């Protein structure tokens, strides 16, 4: 029995780590972000995203969804200021997000030793995410064809709400540096009229280490013994978290069907790669957490101007695959104003 539970303890560190909340980067571009706004204005944006996961994408093998529930509400504020630099439009921006996990969080497990299916009750830490700071420049702009190229570096210092003993954290408590490039062009129609556009984004992330992390495994319960207590107690071992670089790719096809208010329907697709995470324990052992940023996601959005200074966008995101992470279904509202 000790051998069985010992093996269970090892697998639980890996399996439950798959459920850890992947940080949603507020810098993640939305359709239209590659089209330059006027020079010399201030833009304020408010984001509210509700995300829910009822399944975990295993690193290897099938997805398991029985008894899984991971739900969060994420709100963010973003400020952008534009100006002219060397004859090109440029600007600076910053984003601050706040996350709240909704209710109890738990992950289903396909087997708990000899007891059959079970679940892990996930401790969670919400609060402020790491602030994100950026500068950008439109290196190419041709309004006649609606063709633009924007380049932007981002940096996120390890400042934010972080609980190393929690299984779910919105912030990772490590330096993050991102390089981002966006391209927009008009495929059919005219930029000022009805048109079909193409917008492409590529991002590369490089991470520092989190020297104040922990390899966390929550209490594991067998379904038929929930009232009898856990078959494995929770534990956390001091560790240093290392994350390999990750890459992201986005493609949007915005269809502007009502030019008077720039009303647009936008289907899209998102793919992430890499981001393998390992915990380096105090005794020198390196443990693969099972977490990755390998994710495939469908996107559908609609946006319109309510007035010359107010725009609203509503979108939905649906994960097709997530290797070593939660399969999220999300709805997001974004409200923007400029002056």
User: What structural class results from the helix and strand content?
Assistant: mainly beta
| Whole-number mean pLDDT | 88
What is the CATH architecture descriptor? Answer: Beta Barrel
Q: What is the CA-CA span between the terminal residues?
A: 67 Å
Q: Beta-strand percentage?
A: over 45%
| Unreliable stretches | 1-26
The backbone outline, from C-alpha atoms, is: elongated
- Tell me about the biggest sheet? 14 strands, antiparallel
Rg, Cα atoms, Å: 22 Å
Q: What order do the helices and strands follow?
A: HEEEEEEEEEEEEEEEEEEEEEEE
CATH superfamily: monomeric porin ompg
Strand and helix layout:
Elements: H1 2-17, E1 42-57, E2 70-85, E3 88-101, E4 106-109, E5 118-121, E6 124-125, E7 127-128, E8 132-142, E9 147-156, E10 168-169, E11 176-189, E12 195-207, E13 210-217, E14 220-222, E15 235-243, E16 246-252, E17 255-258, E18 263-274, E19 277-281, E20 286-288, E21 295-307, E22 310-322, E23 325-338
Parallel strand pairs: 6-10
Antiparallel strand pairs: 1-2, 1-23, 2-3, 3-7, 3-8, 4-5, 5-14, 8-9, 9-11, 11-12, 12-16, 12-17, 13-15, 15-19, 16-18, 17-18, 18-21, 19-20, 21-22, 22-23
